Each structure stands twice: as C-alpha cells, then as structure tokens.
C-alpha cells in the first residue's frame, strides 16, 4: 500500500479535475448510498468494534453509527441550501453590484483518524468532505483493524478509489501520506502527532483542522447535588472505559463536599457496572497492551480510593478513583485516556487557576454548581474547547454547536453546517452591473478629501 500511495493520490487529483465531484446530484447520491450501506451494515459495525476492544454495542449505536447517520441525514437534507451561493449586502462604493459567497470544494482531502471512536471520527469528516465536493483519502488507526476493514468495505462499495480511498496502515503509512500534496488535512488524534501533521502541512501551506486532546477538568463546588453529579460524572468518564477525548480527566472538588462525592461516585460505579465490573457487558477494554501498561504506570505510588485492580489478558482496568495525586505526578501531567479518575480537593476558587491553567487549554471542561455567578465566572476565566454545566460530554450532542479545541487541544471546529463549511473554500465574488459607471474612483482624483 505504502509504495502505491503517490499514484493513488495522483489518480484522485486527476479525478477531481474532471469536475465530477462538484455535481450536487452526484454528491447527494453518494451520501444516500453511504447512509443505506451503514444502515445495512450496522450490526456488522457493532461486531467489529466489539472485536477490536469490546466496545459495548449500545455505545457503538449511540456514539458511532447513529451519530454518523444523524449527520448524514442532516447533510442530505440541507446540502442544496448550504452549497448554494450566498448573497450578502453589497458595499455602497461598488454600486451597482450584487455580492456573493460561492462554496468551492478544496479538492483533495486527507483525513487521519484515531482508534477511540474509530467509525464516527473517520466517517463524520468524510461525509462533509464528500458533501462539499471533494475527494478523500482516509487513514484510520492501525489499533482498530476490524473497524478499519469494515470502513474499507463499506466505502469501496459506494465510492470509486479515485473519489474516496481507505489507506490501511500505521504511522509509516500516515507519514507517506503526509508527504503528498493535499488541499486540506483533517486530523483527529493526540497533540503530539497533531504537531507533526501541522508542521508537514505548513511546508505546502495546506489548511488544516486539528482535533486534539488534553486534560479536561471537572469542577464540583459545595452547592452541587452530590448523587446527581456523581452519576453524570461516572457516565461521562467511564463511557468507552475513559477513552473519550472529552471525558472528564480529573475532578477538582470543594473540600466540604469531597467525602460525600466520593461516596456517591462509588455508589454510581457499583450501580452501573456491578460488584464485579469485569463481568459487566457495559465496559470497553483498553485498546492495546501499550496503553494498558501506560495506565498501570500512572497508578504507581498513587493512593487508590476505589478499583485499582487489573487483568492483563483481558486488558481490563475497572473504574478507578485516585486520591489527591500531587500536581507534578505523572497522572496529572499527561492526558489519562483510560478509566482512572483523580480526585483533588480545593479550599478556595483561586486554586482552580493553578490546577487548570498549568495544563494548557483543555478540549473540554465541566462544572457542577448551582451558583449562576460561579458558572459565569468559570466560562469567562478559563479557555477551553467547549463544555457542559452540571453534566458531562453533552456539548458534542448538538450539531448546531461547534466541536473543536483551542490552543494545544485543537484548531478549527466541525459538526453540522460547520463541517460543510470546513471543507469548502468561501469564494468572494462581486458582480458589477454595466448600466452605470460612477467615475469618482478613477484618476485624476477630483473628489474633495473631506468627503471620503
Ligand atoms: P494518535 O495521535 O496516536 O494517532 C492518530 C492517528 O495518527 C492514527 O491514525 C495514527 O496512525 C496516526 N499517526 C501516529 N503517528 C503518526 C505520525 N508520526 N505521523 C502521522 N500520523 C501518525 O492518537 P490516538 O492514540 O489514535 O488517539 C488518542 C488521542 O486522540 C487522544 O489524545 C485524544 O484526546 C485524541 N482525540 C481527539 C478527538 C477530538 O475530537 N478532539 C477525538 C478522539 C481522540
């Protein structure tokens, strides 16, 4: 595959120049076929994700296939409107004119995706890349081979390889892809690899979207409702076994509420996953041995409040609560991306700045409080991609909200219409009329300067 990449990319470039992908009926037809195929293959997709890392089928349906289908339906419904040239008020100095924004496909798109929501995070950008009239090469993660295989099968049953091509393989394949000429690169993954992608895109001034990660805080103040907050945190944290880019990474809880919150967190963990969480059908496994060992390493020398065991053959780690790790411990330095939840108490709100700002701008932030003034202050004082007040993860569920990071957690945003716009160049066109030609802009300039 690696050696044939340059020829395959050139074939896509030639195909784009035929203009076929710009045809609106063609784009809609492909999107409809993709929708039908996903609907047909939904069970097989669930099976693939289960065999990759025992992702519970309910989570696959809600966060992968149905999520993608909802985006497809929205795109098909609105495509004519979103693709239409948009008229804007004309500038008076250009009178008489009509002014327009034309939506032009960039051309050849590269989409590199991670393993944690491997179906959603590959298909979602693909839908809008196609909808906007582009070709695309997809490079899914090597860590979810079954899901990649089904994506490959699905895509090739709907699109020609000159239009959409799936490149299976690891970082080496991604590196070869990055050496080719692209008109846009859409990358989802770690901040570390995001920097590599950005550097390589910069060489050709290729525009990018970078959907990255970070340490997303979850603040619980003394006015929060402990049982409800605990339920909502446990749900958001342990979905996909904590391997969610916007999962709460750690809790900062007011010291007066800490004991009560911990008690409720443990209650919720037991209620959701039983006394033997390894027997629960609702907990995914850790994606790889490397990640499994990395997570165990993060637990070294930490005080465990709950959980903490592991099973290597099953790559299983139960929901684990870690008590008051120090600020410079490894678990507080890197994105956890697993079922470990540090709990840190604070006495004064000013301490939040120290904890949160020392870790860069996170992809998400959560705050549980009844105090409106604290909600406002938190939104004003901290920079983060997006968040939810009194719950977790829900900012991703509304397609009218932009999804993306800021600073080291990402560049650009997508979902819904923003996705279509992401893959379209906005071309500004002024259409001048010929029936009038006011002369004042032409030399010799005779307009008194005080009239300008
Ligand atoms: P990763 O960065 O290791 O890998 C992502 C993709 O990049 C994979 O396809 C991989 O093959 C490729 N890759 C790896 N090394 C590369 C290199 N040197 N050059 C080019 N490509 C390379 O990320 P991951 O482990 O798959 O996913 C976890 C990370 O992704 C976490 O940091 C998480 O927060 C982040 N993430 C972000 C979002 C978001 O929407 N912002 C969503 C999911 C995951």
TrEMBL record:
GO biological process assignments: aldehyde metabolic process
Annotated ranges, domain Aldehyde dehydrogenase: 9-429
Matches recorded under CDD domains: ALDH_YwdH-P39616
UniProt-annotated catalytic positions: 211, 245
Family assignment from sequence similarity: Belongs to the aldehyde dehydrogenase family.
GO cellular component: cytoplasm
SUPFAM superfamilies (UniProt xref): ALDH-like
Protein name (database record): Aldehyde dehydrogenase
PANTHER family according to UniProt: ALDEHYDE DEHYDROGENASE (PTHR43570), ALDEHYDE DEHYDROGENASE TYPE III, ISOFORM Q (PTHR43570:SF16)
Pfam families recorded: Aldedh
Keywords assigned: NAD, Oxidoreductase
Keyword rRNA processing: no
One of the record's GO molecular function terms: aldehyde dehydrogenase (NAD+) activity
Taxonomic placement: Bacteria, Pseudomonadati, Bacteroidota, Flavobacteriia, Flavobacteriales
């Amino acid at each position: 595959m690696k050696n044939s990449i340059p020829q395959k990319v050139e074939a896509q470039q030639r195909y784009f120049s035929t203009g076929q992908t710009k045809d609106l009926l063609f784009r809609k037809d492909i999107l409809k076929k993709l929708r039908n195929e996903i609907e047909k293959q939904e069970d097989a997709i669930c099976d693939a994700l289960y065999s990759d890392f025992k992702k519970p089928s309910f989570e696959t349906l809600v966060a992968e296939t149905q999520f993608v289908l909802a985006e497809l339906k929205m795109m098909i419904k609105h495509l004519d409107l979103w693709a239409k040239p948009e008229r804007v008020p004309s500038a008076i100095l250009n009178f008489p004119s009509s002014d327009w924004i034309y939506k032009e496909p960039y051309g050849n798109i590269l989409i590199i995706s991670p393993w944690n929501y491997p179906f959603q995070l590959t298909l979602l950008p693909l839908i809008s890349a196609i909808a906007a009239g582009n070709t695309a090469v997809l490079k899914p993660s090597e860590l979810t081979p079954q899901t990649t295989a089904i994506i490959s099968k699905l895509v090739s049953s709907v699109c020609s390889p000159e239009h959409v091509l799936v490149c299976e393989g690891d970082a080496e394949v991604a590196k070869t892809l990055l050496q080719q000429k692209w008109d846009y690169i859409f990358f989802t993954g770690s901040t570390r690899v995001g920097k590599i992608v950005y550097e390589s895109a910069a060489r050709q001034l290729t525009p990018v979207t970078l959907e990255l990660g970070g340490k997303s805080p979850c603040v619980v103040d003394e006015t929060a409702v402990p049982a409800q907050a605990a339920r909502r945190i446990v749900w958001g944290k342990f979905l996909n076994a904590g391997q969610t880019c916007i999962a709460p990474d750690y809790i900062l809880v007011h010291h007066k509420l800490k004991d009560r919150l911990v008690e409720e967190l443990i209650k919720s963990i037991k209620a959701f996953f039983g006394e033997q969480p390894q027997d629960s059908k609702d907990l995914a496994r850790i994606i790889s041995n490397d990640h499994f060992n990395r997570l165990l390493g993060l637990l070294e020398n930490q005080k465990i409040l709950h959980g903490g065991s592991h099973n290597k053959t099953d790559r299983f780690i139960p929901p684990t609560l870690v008590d008051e790790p120090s600020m410079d411990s490894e678990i507080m330095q890197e994105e956890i991306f697993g079922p470990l939840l540090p709990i840190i108490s604070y006495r004064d709100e000013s301490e939040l700045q120290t904890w949160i700002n020392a870790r860069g701008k996170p992809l998400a932030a959560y705050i549980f409080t009844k105090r409106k003034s604290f909600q406002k202050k938190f939104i004003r004082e901290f920079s983060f991609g997006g968040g939810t007040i009194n719950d977790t993860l829900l900012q991703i569920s509304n397609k009218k909200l932009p999804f993306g990071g800021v600073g080291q957690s990402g560049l650009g945003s997508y979902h819904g219409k923003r996705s279509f716009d992401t893959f379209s160049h906005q071309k500004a066109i002024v259409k001048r009329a010929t029936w009038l030609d006011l002369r004042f802009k032409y030399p010799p300039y005779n307009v008194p300067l005080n009239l300008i």
